[in-house]
Structure formats: C-alpha cells, structure tokens
Specification:
The protein is an alpha+beta fold. The protein has 2 domains: 132 residues, Diaminopimelate Epimerase, Chain A, domain 1; 134 residues, Diaminopimelate Epimerase, Chain A, domain 1 (Roll). The chain contains 4 helices and 17 strands. Strand 3 and strand 4 form a beta hairpin. The N and C termini lie close together (11 Å). The model has no long low-confidence stretch (mean pLDDT 95).
C-alpha cells in the first residue's frame, strides 16, 4: 500500500532536514527515515524532523530528530532552528518558541526573517563535561575530558570530549588538507570509548574569536555544518584556552555564532531556510 506523506524541506546553513508531522508518519519511523532521506530513491536530506503536539501546554511542539541511517538523535542545533522555521511558516509571527527535544526543552528567539528565511538564537543548555554522562569510557576520567590520548589508526590523538545533549569528540588540526579527516571521523564515531557512538569535529584555530570546523556526524557522515557540533567545537576551544567566550564558527556552508558565558549555558545563533514542500509516496517496509 502506498501512503502519501506531506513534508517540507529546510536547511540550517547547508545541514538539510525534512520536516513532517507525527500524525502523517508511519509507526516504523526508523525505516521511514531511511527511505525518505535517501538521496537517490527518496527526497534526500541529512535528517528527518518529526513534530508532534507538546507534552506541556506552555510549549509549542515536541520535536524528534532522525539521522540518515534511521537512528534517533537527542538534539540538533541546526535541526531545531529548521523546526522553528517550519512552525513560524505554519503559524505566522511569533518571537519566542519552546520546543521539547529528547535533550530537554529548548528556548528559541527569532532574531529576524520572514517568508521562509529565518534567524534564531537557541538556548542549547550547559555542556556536559562528565565522562559518565557524555557517555565516554573509561568514565572515571576527570572532568573536563581535555587532551585525552585517543588511539586511532593514525596514532594517538589528543581529543576533547563533551556532550551538547549528544556526544562529541573534538580534534584540533593545523591544516584540513594534511589529514584524512572523513576517514578519521568514521573511525572515531565507532570507537569503543563511545557506547552511543559520537559526532566528531575537526577544528582549525583562526583567532581567539574564530574557529573553522569540519563535521563528521554520527549516523550521517560528512555534513556541511552542525549546530551541536559548532557548540561542542567552541566549548572545546574555550576549555583548551584557545578562544574567548564568544566564538565565530566558520563552516563549509557559512557562519554560526556560539556564546558560552562563565558558568552559564551555551547559546547558538544561525539561520534556517525553507527549500521546498511536497509529498513522498511511501511504500512501507519491504
């Protein structure tokens, strides 16, 4: 049986997402995500966002994030901006939104935009620095996990490990062309030290206010940008004493801005853009 499922497509600085309402999505969301996200036989995107009614009336929606391999992510900084843009496109003007994610309730403030092009400031929460909570093994490593010698096929690398609601491993490099970072990202994602796998950021220091980053996302692979990855990269740069508390993050698709005040929560500011709307003809599990 073929089911017609409406969707919209957005991108948050090149990190593209399909958005669908829960009432339209099949019960086997993982299989559906794999099918619709496939770039040759489906619509194609880095991830799928499923929106549902909020558990608390004070909030605007419940949001779930699915990767291209069908796995569910706890949080996405780019994805949550795309979800907010979808809601504003549906409901009209609103300055503040509260969205329920697996990583907690996130507050968003619309900074500017209309007609499918938006910019939001997102409350990302405090970074998780405790190894057991990231989770990272061995989990008796003192927090924060900075300069940990992670063994790889390319030798031991000094890594910084954090969580922004999802696990991150940050690696500093002097030159992106001098290292096969996609191969290394794939290897680190599956490292036994990360029981839930991990996202990986490769960071080049530009100045004490700017970093350039390449992203390997858990369950997706190479992405043009990442919201939680940009936050984790900025946190890693701050923990290593390389930057100030407000960091410009240069990605392959443009710029995000991250702020982490002392003892406070991380804030992420960036765009979300509507790309298209349509219907996906889903044939169900084979």
């Amino acid at each position: 049986m073929i089911k017609s499922i409406p969707f919209a497509k957005y991108h948050g600085l090149g990190n593209d997402w399909l958005v669908a309402l829960e009432r339209h999505v099949p019960a086997d969301v993982a299989t559906f995500a794999q099918r619709i996200l496939e770039r040759h036989t489906g619509v194609g995107a880095d991830g799928l966002i499923v929106l549902a009614k909020p558990k608390a009336k004070a909030n605007d929606a419940q949001v779930r994030f699915f990767n291209a391999d069908g796995s569910e992510a706890e949080m996405s900084g780019n994805g949550i901006r795309c979800a907010a843009a979808f809601l504003l496109d549906q409901k009209g003007e609103k300055r503040f939104l509260q969205l329920e994610a697996a990583a907690g309730v996130k507050s968003l403030e619309k900074k500017k935009g209309a007609d499918g092009a938006w910019s939001f400031r997102v409350q990302m929460g405090a970074p998780v620095l405790d190894a057991a909570r990231i989770p990272f093994r061995p989990n008796d490593v003192a927090a924060p996990v900075v300069g940990y010698p992670l063994r790889t096929e390319q030798g031991a690398l000094a890594v910084t490990v954090t969580s922004m609601g999802n696990p991150h491993c940050s690696v500093f490099v002097a030159d992106f062309d001098a290292v096969d970072w996609p191969k290394l990202g794939r290897e680190i994602e599956l490292n036994d030290h990360f029981p839930n796998r991990t996202n990986v950021e490769f960071i080049r220091l530009v100045s004490n206010h700017e970093i350039e980053v390449r992203f390997w996302e858990r369950g997706v692979g190479h992405t043009m940008s990442s919201g939680t990855g940009s936050c984790a990269a900025a946190v890693a740069a701050i923990l290593n004493g390389l930057t100030e508390r407000q960091v410009r993050v240069s990605t392959e698709a443009g710029t995000l801005h991250v702020a982490w005040p002392p003892g406070g929560e991380v804030w992420l500011t960036g765009p979300a853009q509507r790309v298209m709307e349509g219907k996906f003809y889903y044939r169900g599990p084979r």
